[in-house]
């Protein structure tokens, strides 16, 4: 039987581990993995526990709420794979990587569809028998464009949206509808080069590392909580094309790593920071 995950976040105090594990013991549950962390500046306690055994979920959660108090956030996520929709534009590398990982069940998710503002990736996506929705943005204002996307999303009952090199800025209203449920891959080790042609900018500056950042999307552009970052070394011999190719490789690795953590319920948010239990 696959272990269940119990995630707890609450104000820090003495004896929390004992209190939580005491409830689990009383429910005859076996703890097969446990990680905890205290953010001292925020005075918040975080704990991820993997448990085995049959139990009454409602009763266990009620006991935990009574033990931890009304300010506690207690989650017992479903074992079902997360329901996900990818947003894309023209670049293929992240979408292709995620579709392959999805085909081999590496990400604990079900990719329901791909939505794109270009037709470029339709042949790729349809090879994997995934629905592809084209929502053109060239002639539509952003409000109308996003409403068309919302209409497409409505039947899907999604858990997360993934911006897999989606080259459109989402409005604050759209982002708030999916708060803490949109993950983006950014083409640099934030903060860094912004705007168009980032690898040409990197080349012009003679950078010695390039990287990528996966983060949750907020209404502040590229300022959301960071999930995973990675850099790789480069040198003077790298052309802009070399940097771009290397950048594509690190982007897909970082995005896949971030999504694996998120979909396995290993990520907590604390203000604009993340707590990762891997």
Please describe what this structure looks like.
- The protein has 278 residues and is α/β, with parallel strands linked by helices.
- The protein has helices at residues 16-26, 57-68, 93-103, 122-127, 142-153, 172-177, 198-205, 240-263; strands at 4-11, 30-39, 44-52, 73-75, 82-88, 109-116, 132-134, 160-163, 182-186, 209-216, 226-233, 267-270, 273-276.
- It has 8 helices and 13 strands.
- The longest helix has 24 residues, at 240-263.
- The model has no long low-confidence stretch (mean pLDDT 92).
Continuous helix count: 8
Look at the helices and sheets and give the structural class.
alpha/beta
CATH superfamily of the largest domain: Formyl transferase, N-terminal domain
Beta-strand percentage range: 25-35%
Rg on CA atoms, Å: 21 Å
| Corresponding CATH architecture of the largest domain | 3-Layer(aba) Sandwich
The dominant shape is globular
CATH class of the largest domain: Alpha Beta
What is the H-and-E element order?
A: EHEEHEEHEHEHEHEHEEHEE
Largest sheet: 7 strands, mixed
The figure for the number of domains is 2
For the record, give the distance between the C-alpha atoms at the N and C termini, rounded to a whole number.
21 Å
What name does CATH use for the topology of the largest domain? Rossmann fold
Number of strands: 13
For the largest sheet, list the strands in their spatial order: 7-6-5-8-9-10-11
Mean pLDDT: 92
Helicity level:
25-40%
Residue ranges: pLDDT <50 for 5 or more in a row? none
């Amino acid at each position: 039987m696959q272990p269940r995950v119990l995630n707890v976040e609450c104000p820090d105090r003495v004896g929390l581990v004992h209190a939580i594990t005491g409830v689990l013991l009383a429910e005859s549950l076996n703890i097969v993995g446990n990680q905890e962390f205290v953010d001292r500046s925020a005075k918040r306690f975080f704990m991820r526990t993997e448990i085995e055994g049959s139990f009454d979920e409602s009763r266990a959660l009620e006991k935990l709420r009574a033990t931890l108090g009304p300010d506690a956030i207690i989650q017992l996520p479903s074992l079902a794979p997360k329901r996900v929709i990818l947003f894309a534009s023209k670049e293929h590398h992240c979408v292709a990587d995620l579709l392959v990982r999805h085909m081999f069940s590496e990400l604990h998710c079900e990719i329901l569809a791909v939505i794109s503002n270009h037709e470029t990736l339709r042949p790729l996506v349809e090879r994997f028998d995934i629905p592809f929705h084209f929502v053109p943005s060239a002639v539509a204002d952003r409000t109308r464009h996003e409403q068309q996307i919302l209409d497409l999303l409505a039947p899907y009952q999604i858990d997360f949206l993934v911006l897999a090199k989606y080259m459109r800025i989402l409005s604050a209203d759209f982002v708030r509808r999916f708060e803490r449920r949109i993950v983006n891959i950014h083409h640099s080790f934030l903060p860094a080069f912004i705007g168009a042609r980032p690898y040409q900018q990197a080349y012009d500056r003679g950078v010695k590392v390039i990287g990528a950042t996966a983060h949750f999307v907020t209404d502040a552009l590229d300022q959301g909580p960071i999930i995973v970052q990675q850099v790789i070394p480069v040198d003077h011999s790298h052309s802009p094309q070399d940097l771009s190719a290397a950048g594509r490789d690190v982007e897909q690795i970082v995005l896949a790593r971030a999504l694996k953590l998120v979909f396995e319920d290993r990520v907590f948010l604390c203000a604009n920071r993340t707590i990762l239990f891997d």
